[in-house]
Specification:
Elements (H helix, E strand, L loop, with lengths): L1 H17 L22 H10 L3 H15 L3 H13 L3 H14 L4 H13 L3 H14 L5 H15 L12 E7 L2 E6 L2
Antiparallel strand pairs: 1-2
Helix pairs in contact: 2-3, 2-4, 3-4, 4-5, 4-6, 5-6, 6-7, 7-8
Length: 184
């Protein structure tokens, strides 16, 4: 029985060792292009984000952090990936840390504003978007749209479902004519 376990374990180890080395020689370290050019983890992460592969992008950004160290670009990218994955608490913490490194880093400001919007903190989001918009000199359409949305969320009245308890009913009277009636 020990022989069966040992052979099975050996096969498992061999299979695990060969899993992601297709097309790469054993002499080529992982993360390095066979032509001798290192592939930047941030670039790889950005491309994965564009492709909708947010979890893989997060891993690429962590690799970039290991290669280049923690800087505002890496922190902003990590925050963006966490935002895309719906990890709002982590995204907020990381983006705030990026802004500690560089308070004028527009991508981190914009993404922090998005996190705040997602968390329903529209007033804070508006302030952050205004700062990003000013620093960007109004160049980015997405920041402008985010700022407009934050302002609209602040200005629109909050929906109160308790107001519906008295109830209204839409009734069709004639062809193409409807009347709104109050129900008591």
């Amino acid at each position: 029985m020990q022989a069966k376990i040992s052979v099975g374990f050996l096969v498992l180890l061999i299979a695990a060792g060969c899993g992601d080395t297709v097309g790469v020689s054993r002499d080529t370290p992982r993360g390095i292009d066979a032509r001798g050019e290192s592939v930047d983890g941030l670039i790889v992460g950005h491309r994965l984000m564009e492709a909708g592969e947010h979890e893989l992008a997060l891993k690429a950004y962590y690799r970039a952090a290991g290669e280049t160290g923690i800087n505002v670009d890496v922190l902003s990218a990590l925050g963006s990936a966490n935002l895309a994955l719906g990890r709002l608490g982590q995204a907020e913490q990381i983006l705030k840390r990026a802004l500690e490194e560089d308070p004028n880093f527009v991508p981190a400001l914009n993404n922090l504003g998005v996190v705040l919007m997602e968390r329903g903190r529209y007033g804070e989001a508006k302030i952050v978007f205004q700062q990003a918009y000013a620093l960007d000199s109004g160049e980015s359409d997405s920041i402008r749209e985010n700022l407009k949305l934050a302002i609209a969320k602040i200005e629109s009245p909050v929906y109160d479902s308790t107001q519906e308890e008295g109830g209204f009913k839409l009734v069709r009277r004639e062809k193409g004519r409807y009347v709104l009636l109050t129900q008591l």
